[in-house]
TrEMBL record:
Any one GO MF annotation of this record: copper ion binding
Chain residue ranges for the region called Disordered: 116-151
Protein name: Copper resistance protein
Transmembrane segments: 157-176
Cellular component terms (Gene Ontology): cell envelope; periplasmic space; plasma membrane
Organism this protein belongs to: Priestia veravalensis
């Protein structure tokens, strides 16, 4: 009896477990509190775990919400893209994400854009070409999204199986205990 209990305890401790901690932001581009001195057409938030497709971000300048041309969730990243570079000023980025554990997380960062306007207009044409290339690359990666979703499903299945084994083992222990007693 003790051997069975010890075996079950060792198995539970030895097997990797999935952490159900809330998903927090890991990195942001631009960083919180940063002053951006070059043109900015993309905001990227990277999180600790996979985030769901329903996750969103909003960008405000002087209390006015700006229109984001495209928002994309890709694995751990939430990306907002603007066709035109952001004008100089102070910005706040708020996000509302659903993490891998199903919990909704909200937070915000702020940054300042202080770019040379001549640089912005001369580099704007180059950025549009780069954006078109990036969009083509992004649209060609549905396999990565499917892989991330299947990894999440596999993790959940693994946890459910471990819980089921523990329940069955506990039931067997009680059955054997009653037969001996």
């Amino acid at each position: 009896m003790r051997k069975i209990m010890m075996f079950l305890m060792v198995m539970l401790l030895a097997l990797p477990t999935v952490s159900f901690a809330h998903t927090h932001v890991q990195t942001t581009v631009p960083e919180n509190g940063a002053t951006v001195t070059s043109q900015l057409t993309e905001i990227k938030l990277s999180f600790e775990t996979h985030i769901e497709k329903v996750s969103t971000l909003t960008v405000t300048k002087d209390g006015q919400e700006l229109s984001i041309d495209s928002q994309e969730v890709s694995g751990h990243d939430l990306i907002g893209t603007f066709e035109e570079p952001l004008p100089n000023g102070e910005y706040e980025v708020k996000w509302n994400i659903v993490g891998e554990d199903g919990h909704v997380m909200e937070d915000a960062i702020s940054f300042t854009v202080n770019a040379d306007q001549e640089e912005v207009t001369s580099e704007n044409k180059d950025t549009q070409k780069e954006s078109a290339t990036e969009e083509a690359e992004k649209s060609s990666s549905p396999d990565e999204q499917t892989e991330a979703e299947s990894t999440s499903e596999n993790s959940s299945f693994f946890v459910i199986m471990i819980v089921a084994v523990v329940i069955v083992a506990t039931a067997l222990i009680f059955v054997f205990r009653k037969k001996k007693g």
